[in-house]
């Protein structure tokens, strides 16, 4: 039986940790304000120096042990200096208090003496006793006072966690714009250790380096491993190598032995400090990176003097070849093996638009026909391209990166995947999933995008490579379960060798029908014009609503500049880069904006009213989307889907919103006609047909249940492929059924006579707590009420009968259509997005009854359509 004492002790430690963490979070806003003042005073002091008002000083980068070439701008040096003081003081305070000392006794004199020395940090802290206190005495006194009055419980084992938590929380207060633009994400230690275990194994088995990441005597040039973290942040990977190697030495010599300390210290001096390079572009993580690494050394109980800690960590932009050339050219020589490891930023709105990397990324675009290639400008893609180039330059190496997983299967990344296969001999993918838009859970970073770890091995410079793709799936539901899998270490037996595919997928696919599907023609090849995505309103709550009256009211308030009322209604009208109020006022007016109001397809069958004024709507898509009308329908599909099954195909005869079929997938429209001429490109068939007949044949195919099920995995990767018909009879029947389906989906049908409605006054169709009664096949618009006199249903309750369970559950893009319509029109006494301040009008009730009828018609047509499709697309023929 386990004693209760350790449990109580553990519980107490957790309570102490939470208390300390809460205390730290309370002081962060105070520290952020002090930091802003320190930076401002630093800038003023440097301006006085520049203007020769101050002659004797040591307030320069070189005097503080920093490379002055990197700090030509006062702003950057002031930023670095300020954050060095804040983070350095915080870490010194932790070390001081962790030594069982009273926080009230913490002073500025403890800054240098209570922190591991470093070549860069030592001078900053040492000089703070003299120059800093003289220049900013009152601010420093205020800073120290905040730490003195904050209670800290002794938590030596959790101190690193406190440091990283403090960093992210502090930056949110001190510089929220940087925090938002760059996103400070920490790589959890289980991932870092797993990645080094993989590199260790791959160096041993693929690169013939017996000692793996530990290396050996530098005399053997083949075992000369050079490490590079190109986006080092707070140096999680440098610290991770220390921990991983420390564990290896402990296993070999024993944790407490003199041999362990001697060998580990020798490895640090001869191997780690000279050959581990780190680059970072932001001052904040650059400062904390030094501190964190020194803190790790301190915890490993490795004694070093300040002059020995020659950490090769540079404030540089890896993707700008001009600025980091002098470092990169010295890093490697002929015969070296390079290991590039890291967790680069994932940022679609990349700020890294350096000419060099922009040119390199063009290699990933060669042959791509897609119009919008912005996704290839994401920062993580640029860092992968850099790593690929660097390994090619050296000749031999391993790239180990944890990144956004979109490139594993995305259509836009097919050229990138092919390029990587030509560079490397082996590529190992660990798919950690976690894409919230696919409803995946257990993301290691608590972010929305899925992530994966890639290990790419280049053995030599031989040409014509075709990397083998090894895939390991880690779909577990929680982060802890995934970490438990990684804790078992890197084992090649857990990977599956993927078969060859035309688009070089880096994920496991159902291969049973892939060969057949790849004979199909992508839908975009049957249309002359490149499809355009739907409207992106940008300010949905301002220009769109279920009630046209609300749209008009919002526009009136906007053009009358009643922004305060709009904000109270949660209608956002603040300026952005692409949307400026003054520009809108100069280009349009209230009456013109009101005259543009029309309906837009919003969630499947559902619609909204939109003020379709190109001056207000950010992504209006005019010239293409506005050509959709009753006489000119458009088939809509997604280019790639995050849904678990293919379910994003529809047709529209009105404007479409960008994500009208699914909130996670973009809808692309294929017009029947463009500028009055047919937009359909007929394929070569054994029989004659018309453009319109082929248009509806495509629509019929897209809704075949067999087609959707059989080719599901491939349909979600890119634009759907359409089989060319060889049998005229099946073709015409599919086109006929596709036309009938399209008529139903565009509500060009009569109301089904089997539907019954409550006999109530027109103004009583108010939607409140609606519900579906499966037994009665009835939708009640409100909680069912009983007549107190006879117990029967209250005649004033709105209801619609004749609704089967299949009709109630019918979905488009995983959106239940009937409940979607009702939920968006529930009654609310005040103006609120997606509600009504009234009941349904007669016209709205008719639309809902037509949607019910269209769904019933669809359920009748699908089996007929599928029967024909199965005869046309016979496997094995």
Describe this structure as you would to a colleague:
It is a single chain. The chain is 42% helix and 13% strand. By secondary structure, it is of the alpha/beta class. The chain has a 9-stranded mixed β-sheet with strand order 3-2-1-4-5-7-6-8-9, with helices on both faces. A 4-stranded antiparallel β-sheet has the order 11-18-15-16, covered by helices on one side. The chain has a 4-stranded mixed β-sheet with strand order 12-14-13-17. It is globular, with a radius of gyration of 32 Å.
Short description:
The chain is an alpha/beta fold and 877 residues long.
What spatial form do the alpha-carbon principal axes imply? globular
Number of strands: 29
Indicate the structural class.
alpha/beta
If helices are DSSP runs of H or I spanning 4 or more residues, what is the number of helices? 29
Q: Top keywords for this entry?
A:
single chain; 877 residues; alpha/beta; nine-stranded mixed beta sheet; four-stranded antiparallel beta sheet; 29 helices; 29 strands; globular; disordered N terminus
What is the element layout, followed by pairings?
Blueprint: H1 4-50, H2 74-98, H3 110-113, H4 119-135, H5 137-148, H6 159-174, H7 176-182, H8 189-205, E1 225-229, H9 236-253, H10 258-275, E2 276-280, H11 283-299, E3 312-315, H12 321-331, E4 337-342, H13 355-361, H14 379-394, E5 397-404, H15 414-423, E6 426-433, E7 451-458, E8 468-473, H16 479-486, E9 496-497, H17 514-517, E10 521-522, E11 532-533, H18 540-543, E12 544-545, H19 548-559, H20 563-568, H21 581-587, H22 590-595, E13 597-603, E14 606-611, E15 634-638, E16 649-652, E17 655-656, E18 667-671, E19 673-674, E20 677-678, H23 691-702, H24 705-710, H25 712-715, E21 721-722, H26 728-745, E22 756-757, E23 771-773, E24 778-780, E25 799-801, H27 805-809, E26 811-812, E27 815-816, H28 817-823, E28 826-827, E29 835-836, H29 842-872
Parallel strand pairs: 1-2, 1-4, 2-3, 4-5, 6-8, 13-17, 28-29
Antiparallel strand pairs: 5-7, 6-7, 8-9, 10-21, 11-18, 12-14, 13-14, 15-16, 15-18, 19-20, 22-25, 23-24, 24-25, 26-27
């Amino acid at each position: 039986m386990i004693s209760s004492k350790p449990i109580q002790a553990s519980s107490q430690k957790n309570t102490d940790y939470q208390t300390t963490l809460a205390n730290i979070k309370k002081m962060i806003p105070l520290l952020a304000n002090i930091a802003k003042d320190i930076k401002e005073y630093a800038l003023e002091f440097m301006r006085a120096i520049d203007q020769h008002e101050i002659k004797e000083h040591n307030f320069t980068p070189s005097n503080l042990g920093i490379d002055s070439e990197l700090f030509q701008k006062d702003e950057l040096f002031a930023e670095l200096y300020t954050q060095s003081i804040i983070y350095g003081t915080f870490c010194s305070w932790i070390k001081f208090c962790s030594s069982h000392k009273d926080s009230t006794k913490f002073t500025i004199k403890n800054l240098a003496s209570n922190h591991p020395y470093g070549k860069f940090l030592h001078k900053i802290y040492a000089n703070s006793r003299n120059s800093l206190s003289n220049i900013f005495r009152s601010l420093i006194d205020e800073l120290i006072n905040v730490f003195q009055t904050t209670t800290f419980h002794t938590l030596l084992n959790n101190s690193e966690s406190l440091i990283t938590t403090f960093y992210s929380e502090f930056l949110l207060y001190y510089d929220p714009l940087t925090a938002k633009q760059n996103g400070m994400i920490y790589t959890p230690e289980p991932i870092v250790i797993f990645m080094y275990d993989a590199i260790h194994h791959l160096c041993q088995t693929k690169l013939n380096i017996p000692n793996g990441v530990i290396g050996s005597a530098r005399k053997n040039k083949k075992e000369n491993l050079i490490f590079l973290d190109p986006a080092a942040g707070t140096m999680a990977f440098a610290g991770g190598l220390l921990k991983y190697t420390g564990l290896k030495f402990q296993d070999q010599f024993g944790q407490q032995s003199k041999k362990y300390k001697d060998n580990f210290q020798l490895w640090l001096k001869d191997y780690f400090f000279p050959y581990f390079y780190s680059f970072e572009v932001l001052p904040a993580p650059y400062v904390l990176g030094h501190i964190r690494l020194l803190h790790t050394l301190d915890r490993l109980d490795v004694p070093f003097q300040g002059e020995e800690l020659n950490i090769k960590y540079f404030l540089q932009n890896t993707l700008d070849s001009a600025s980091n050339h002098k470092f990169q050219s010295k890093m490697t020589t002929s015969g070296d093996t390079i290991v590039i490891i890291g967790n680069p930023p994932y940022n679609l709105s990349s700020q890294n638009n350096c000419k060099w990397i922009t040119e390199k990324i063009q290699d990933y675009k060669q042959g791509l026909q897609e119009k919008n290639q912005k996704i290839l400008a994401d920062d993580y893609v640029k860092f992968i391209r850099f790593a690929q180039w660097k390994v090619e330059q050296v000749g031999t190496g391993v790239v180990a990166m944890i990144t956004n997983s979109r490139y594993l299967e995305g259509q836009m990344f097919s050229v990138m995947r092919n390029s990587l296969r030509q560079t490397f001999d082996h590529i190992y993918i660990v798919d950690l999933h976690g894409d919230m838009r696919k409803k995946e859970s257990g993301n290691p970073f608590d972010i929305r995008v899925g992530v994966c770890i890639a290990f790419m091995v280049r053995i030599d410079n031989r040409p014509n490579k075709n990397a083998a793709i090894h895939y390991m799936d880690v779909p577990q539901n929680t982060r802890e379960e995934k970490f438990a899998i990684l804790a078992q270490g890197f084992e090649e037996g857990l990977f599956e060798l993927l078969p060859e595919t035309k688009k070089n997928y880096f994920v496991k696919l159902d291969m049973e029908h892939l060969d057949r599907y790849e004979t199909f023609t992508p839908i975009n090849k049957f249309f002359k014009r490149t499809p355009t995505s739907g409207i992106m309103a940008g300010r949905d709550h301002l220009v769109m609503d279920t009630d046209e009256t609300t749209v008009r009211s919002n526009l009136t308030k906007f053009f009358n500049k009643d922004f305060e009322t709009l904000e109270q209604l949660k209608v956002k009208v603040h300026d952005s880069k692409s949307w400026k109020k003054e520009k809108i006022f100069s280009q349009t007016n209230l009456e013109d904006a009101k005259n543009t109001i029309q309906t837009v397809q919003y969630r499947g069958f559902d619609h909204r009213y939109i003020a379709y004024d190109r001056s207000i709507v950010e992504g209006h898509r005019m010239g293409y989307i506005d050509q959709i009308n009753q006489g000119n329908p458009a088939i809509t599909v997604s280019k790639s889907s995050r849904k678990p099954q293919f379910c994003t195909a529809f047709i529209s005869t009105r404007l479409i919103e960008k994500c009208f079929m699914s909130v996670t997938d973009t809808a692309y429209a294929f017009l029947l006609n463009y500028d009055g001429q047919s937009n359909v490109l007929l394929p070569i068939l054994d029989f004659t047909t018309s453009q319109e007949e082929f248009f509806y044949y495509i629509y019929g195919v897209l809704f075949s249940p067999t087609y959707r099920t059989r080719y599901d995995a491939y349909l979600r990767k890119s634009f759907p492929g359409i089989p060319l018909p060889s049998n005229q009879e099946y073709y015409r029947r599919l086109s006929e059924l596709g036309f009938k389906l399209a008529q139903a989906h565009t509500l060009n049908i009569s109301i089904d006579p089997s539907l019954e409605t409550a006999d109530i006054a027109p103004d009583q169709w108010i939607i409140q707590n609606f519900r579906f009664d499966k037994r009665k096949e009835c939708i009640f618009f409100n909680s069912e009420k009983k007549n107190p006199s006879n117990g029967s249903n209250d005649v004033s309750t709105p209801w619609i009968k004749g609704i089967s369970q299949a009709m109630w559950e019918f979905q488009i893009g995983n959106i239940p259509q009937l409940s979607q319509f009702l939920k968006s029109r529930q009654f609310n006494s005040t103006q609120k997005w997606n509600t009504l301040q009234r009941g349904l009008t007669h016209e709205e009730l008719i639309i809902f009854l037509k949607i019910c009828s269209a769904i019933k018609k669809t359920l009748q047509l699908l089996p007929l359509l599928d029967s024909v499709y199965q005869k046309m697309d016979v496997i094995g023929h």
